[in-house]
Each structure stands twice: as C-alpha cells, then as structure tokens.
Specification:
- The relative contact order is 0.04.
- It is built from four helices and 49 strands.
- The protein folds into four domains: about 110 residues, Leucine-rich repeat, LRR (right-handed beta-alpha superhelix) (Alpha-Beta Horseshoe); about 130 residues, Ribonuclease Inhibitor (Leucine-rich repeat, LRR (right-handed beta-alpha superhelix)), CATH 3.80.10.10; about 230 residues, Leucine-rich repeat, LRR (right-handed beta-alpha superhelix) (Alpha-Beta Horseshoe); about 45 residues, no CATH class.
- It holds the Pfam family LRR_5.
- This is Leucine-rich repeat domain-containing protein.
C-alpha cells in the first residue's frame, strides 16, 4: 500500500514538474523549456506541418515575454515531414532526438552551425539520402566527419555565403569568424575588405583572405585591409600590377603567404597605423614595400586643419584653423593631401571659435553639418553663406558674432531658410539666429514662427523694439541674452510663451512689455514675464471719421484701413496719421 502511494506521489510530482516547465508556440513551432528556469527550450511539435526549408531559430521570444535558447529537437517531432528539402540548425543545438526527421526523404541539404556536433538519437535521419551535402563550420569539419552519428553523411563540407560580391567561408561560430574565398564579379578599383560581415543576423569578423583569391585581378588599384585581418594567403594578390596603394589598419602586421603581392609595384605607398610603423618595417613580409607610411589622421592645408572621419571613404571635417587662414574663408568641397583626395563633409564644433581675423565665410556644396559653437565669438565675421547641402547645425553656432549682419542660405537647402539675413528652419517655424550685428533697431518676428531658438537674438545690442507674434509658444535658453538696448516688447501670444533658462538675461525689467488685454493676468502670474513692466494692448482696431483701422504693429504704431462706416463723408481723405485715445 505504501509502495503504491509512493509511486502515485512520484507520478504527481513528475506531472507537476512538467506543468511547471514553460510551453509556448512561436511561428508555428511548439517549444518546451528543458528545465525550470534554464532559459533553454526544445522543439516538441508544430501547428502546421513544415515544408521546404526548415530554419530552426537560435532563440525564441514568446508573447508572454522573455527569450529562450533553442538547444534540442525532441524525438519524432518532424518524422512525418516528408516534404522538407533543407534543414538549418543554429549554433546552439546540442541534441537531435530519435526519429526526429525519419521520413524526410526529400532533403537536399543540411546545415548545422554548431561547432560541436550535436548528439543524434537513433534513426534521426533514418530514410534521408546520406550523400546530400552537410554544411558545417570549417573548424569543426573533422569533428563531424569523425563523429559516429554524423559520419553517415558522406559529403560534409564547410558553410559558405556571399555578401557584397565577396564569398566567405564560415570558420568559427565561437567566436564568429570568416575567411574570404572568392567573389561573384571580378573586383576593380578600390577593394575594401570589411572588418565584419553579416550572415543570418550575426556579424563575423573577417580574419583571413584565402590563397589565390584575387590573383590576376589587374583592375584593382587600391587595397584596404581592416584591423581584424590576420592572414593573407599565398598568391592572394598575385600580379595585381595596377595597385597604387595599400592601407592596413591592423596594428599587428598580418601574416603574408608566399608571393601574395608578386608582380605589384613595391614602391607604392603602404599606409599602416602610426604606432605600428616600425613593426611593419621590421616584418620580413611587409618590408618588401619600400614606401611604408603612417596612416594620416589629421593634416593642414591653406590654414585649415582637417580631421579624417572615414579613411576608406576619404571623408574629412574641418577641425580648426591656423594663423595662415585668410580673412575671407572658403570651406572647399574637396582637399588633397599626401597624394589622396578627401571629401569635406563637416565643420567640427568650435572649429573657428574666437578667431578674430575672419570676416566672411563661404561654405561650399557638399558640407552637410556644422557643430556646436563653430563660429562663436568670431567678432570680425560679417557674412556667412550656407550651401544647399547643409542639413544639420548645432547650437550656439554664431554665438556673440557681434559684427555678423547676414546669414545667407542657398535656395535649394531642404533644412534651412534665410530671410533678410535671419536664419530659420525650412518651414520658418523656428527662428534660429538673428545676426547680432544687424543694424536695425526694431524687428517683428514673422507669424509663421512658433519657437524662438537657443541664443537666437543674443547680443543684438542695436535692437530697441521687438514684436513677438501670437504664434510663438516657446523661447529657448539665452535667446535674448545681452540685448541691452531693448526698450520695448510687444508679445501678441494669448498664452504666455514658455521660457527656458536665462531667456532675458541682462535685459532691463522696467521696459514696457505690451500683451493682449485679456491675457494680462496670465502674464502677471507667469514666471519671468511677471518681472517686466506689463501693459495691456488696449486696442487692435478702432474707428475715426468713418474709417475703421486695424493696428498692424503695436510697437511701430502703424495701422491700415480695413473698413468704413455710415459716418464716412462723400468725399473721403485717407490721412497720413490718425490719433485715437485708447
């Protein structure tokens, strides 16, 4: 009796354990956790019988949350799937159950990314053709060929794949590494070997170029090797006679096989990391090149110092300037140095900060970005010409450029617009910079503007009167810092615009600020706004002598005639000025 009870308890515990293990379905396959809390699952079935290619995922994420590693295929799961043509196992698979693919007679290939041959149950591939190719990582090839379960397949070979015209052999899956073994179309011009290549959602480091791969590719003119490259096989670039330069980013000279560069001109420049130059010069394989040079990271031409952004693409940014810089500056689209042509794409943050000699800057087409504070405190700068290509500008770009009177933007620019020398975003909803040196004493911000940008009017010490339209909802930090001559503001927004830090720093709080009469209380309650001498705009429209006038500019006190009344005489005179008490 006790024995029966004990057996029942064991059965109950087993059932409870199985129930506790997580089970779920993802993309038509059923999974069960191999043990509570292990984070590993096995495939136990399917909702729809798979056909064609069955690509087993490495990890799965059920709708309930979490991520699980797929490590096993349960017994007999796909035994009746006789329409499968290809099965692909991930690197995480450790076990394939008995009869798992027993009747998969139509299989034409099997691919397994596991570096250790998965354990295989009895008759796992019972009726499958054992002469079909089985693709595995190259480093594991001998392990599969000598494994009792896998050696039934007589055509085991390594996994290959193609990416961007180059064919790769998968060497390892832990770590992920690959070798270049061929190409689909004969490469010409610049051959840029990538540091990594993607395959099935994973990145593989490119560490080797196989023997003879690019032999007699006479159209190659330049080779670029990544830092990851360790080995260049024998005759790999045999008789690539048109090579004009080689660049190698590995700080350790890659191993070079016999006659790898036979036929190439040994006087061409070979660029290597500066800290590794002596290593390359003392290396027997690399010292055959007589013009070994350090890779250029910065250089100066015409008073401008450039920093290389991308060695392969040969793109640079203007980093700073020297004393040789002329007063009228042109940022060129390209620059040549050391026999190479570089494309100029950017101007770095603070590149011209506090330069006291430049008076005008023209930025050529091709420059796409300007960093923060690039021209800050350039007190002599009067004009800046921005090309259509410029699409990104940082903050404080023209901070305290006290002589700046105009920022001119090319008409085709898709990001920015200039009106009367004032810089806006393209749709004129943000006023970015009102040049500090503009001589005008009053300015009315256009009605399209909703945001006044960071530092937008800073140090505009000629400005005495300003009108902010009803459309403005926010004003950026330091926007009116240093506008010490400002004597009057009119703010037409019915809701007080939101203010960032130090918007009105150094502005006299006793100046009158005119706001809509209905909003006076709101401004009087709003932080910062309440510090000013707030006054209500008493009238927007009035009638005198039978003519109705609308106020156009409260600050300038200009009006227009918009209508008439019955009091208008037969002979009417539109006066030059009109007086109205209110």
């Amino acid at each position: 009796m006790k024995k029966a009870f004990f057996t029942s308890v064991l059965a109950l515990l087993a059932a409870m354990s199985a129930w506790a293990q997580n089970s779920f379905t993802v993309n038509g396959l059923n999974y069960q956790e191999t043990g509570v809390g292990t984070g590993k699952v096995k495939i136990t079935g399917y909702t729809t019988r798979p056909t064609g290619v069955l690509d087993i995922p490495e990890t799965v994420s059920p709708s309930s949350g979490g991520s699980y590693t797929v490590t096993e295929i349960a017994d007999e799961v796909f035994s009746s799937c006789d329409n499968l043509t290809e099965v692909i196992f991930p690197s995480t698979i450790t076990e394939i159950g008995e009869y798992a693919f027993y009747y998969s007679r139509d299989l034409t290939s099997i691919t397994c990314y596991a570096s250790t041959p998965p354990a295989m149950g009895e008759n796992a591939f019972g009726t499958a053709d054992k002469t079909i190719p089985v693709y595995v990582p190259a480093n594991a090839l001998s392990s599969y060929q000598s494994n009792a379960d896998w050696s039934e397949f007589t055509r085991t070979t390594y996994i290959t794949f193609i990416s961007n015209n180059l064919e790769y052999k998968l060497l390892y899956t832990s770590p992920n590494q690959a070798e270049i073994i061929g190409y689909t179309t004969t490469p010409t011009g610049v051959l840029n070997i990538p540091a990594t290549v993607s395959h099935k959602g994973k990145d593989y480091s490119v560490i080797t170029i196989a023997e003879e791969v690019f032999a007699e590719c006479s159209g190659l003119t330049e080779l670029v090797f990544p830092e990851s490259l360790r080995t260049i096989g024998a005759h790999a670039f045999h008789y690539c006679q048109d090579l004009t330069s080689i660049t190698c980013y590995n700080t350790t000279p890659p191993n070079v096989g016999e006659s790898a560069f036979e036929g190439a001109d040994k006087t061409i420049p070979v660029y290597v990391p500066a800290e590794a130059l002596s290593s390359y010069r003392s290396n027997a394989n690399w010292s055959v090149f007589t013009n070994l040079q350090a890779i250029v990271t910065e250089f100066t031409v015409g008073g401008l110092t450039y920093k290389v952004i991308d060695q392969t693409a040969k793109t640079v940014e203007v980093k700073s300037s020297t004393d040789e810089l002329p007063s009228t500056v042109t940022i060129p689209p390209t620059v040549s140095y050391g026999g190479k042509n570089y494309t100029v794409t950017a101007i770095a943050s603070s590149a011209f900060y506090q330069n006291q000699t430049i008076t005008a800057i023209t930025i050529f087409e091709g420059i796409t970005s300007i960093g923060n504070n690039t021209f800050g405190r350039c007190f002599a700068l009067t004009t800046v010409n921005i090309p259509a290509s410029l699409t990104q500008m940082g903050d404080w770009v023209f901070d305290n450029c006290s002589a700046l009177t105009a920022i001119n933007v090319a008409g085709g620019n898709t990001a920015y617009y200039s009106g009367n020398g004032v810089l806006f975003n393209k749709d004129k909803t943000t006023l970015l910079c009102y040049p500090a040196g503009k001589p005008e004493t009053d300015y009315t911000i256009p009605n399209s503007v909703t945001v006044i940008g960071v530092n937008a009017f800073a140090y505009c010490d000629a400005l005495t009167q300003l009108t902010i339209p009803s459309s403005v909802t926010s004003i950026g930090e330091w926007a009116f810092d240093g506008c010490t001559a400002l004597a009057e503001m009119t703010v037409l927004a019915t809701v007080p615009p939101t203010l960032s830090e130090n918007v009105f720093r150094n502005i006299n709080r006793d100046i009158p600020v005119y706001v809509p009469a209905a909003s006076l209380a709101a401004y009087q309650a709003a932080e910062v706004w309440k510090e000013f001498n707030l006054q209500a705009i008493m009238v927007n429209e009035f009638t005198v002598g039978g003519l109705t006038y609308e106020v156009i500019d409260q600050t300038a006190k200009t009006v227009e005639v918009i209508n008439f009344t019955n009091e208008l005489p037969n002979t009417a005179t539109i006066p030059a000025t009109v007086s109205y008490e209110g």
